[in-house]
Write a structure and sequence with these properties.
Blueprint lengths: L1 H17 L17 E8 L3 E12 L5 E7 L6 H7 L2 E7 L2 E7 L9 E8 L7 E6 L2 E17 L2 E10 L4 E6 L3 E8 L6 E10 L1
Antiparallel strand pairs: 1-2, 1-12, 2-3, 3-4, 4-5, 5-6, 7-8, 8-9, 9-10, 10-11, 11-12
Length: 200
Amino acid sequence: MKNRILVLLLSLLFVSCDILSPEESLPFPWVKRDTELIYNYYSNTDTIFSALSIKFLLNPDNNLRMVYDYNNGYNNGLLNSSIGNSFLIFKENDGLYASTPVSCIPPSFKSTKFLRVPSKPKLNKLYPQYVCGDIGFSLEVIGIDTVITVPSGSYNVFLLNDMSHSIIEYWSEKHGLIRMLCFNKNDSTYFAYELISIKY
């Protein structure tokens, strides 16, 4: 009898170890405090090593803030106009949500959330992006199950096209933002940020 009880207790222990916490069961496991993604910058004429890092910092209210830190003093205005320098980020079952004030007229203490990166992207689907409560631009899924290679390795990604700023983002649900490719429609030049390392 004692042996049967012991076996039952051990089986419950192993089952309990396999149960994920609500946070662990959500997509985008790399979105957590102190994660840092580091990127090289490439253009038609230049290469800048470790030019950009994306960091996840904990706010006093325990919400995560996604911060784009342009190292070496380098910042491209075209890219910055699309993604911004910093915003609150929230993990949900259907993807990553960002937060924006409902109004840009101070004082504005209310905010609203919108889906920034879907966890289950559907080809050709549009995701509106809000700025100060209004739709600023939209992201369109233009590719799924695509394999790309960058300095940090090869990844299966999906592609989000920011049509307003001529930027294509390459996302991996398991590893993060892998590449940003930005075009200049006027003279066919481009620049790109490509992932070189992830620090946890």
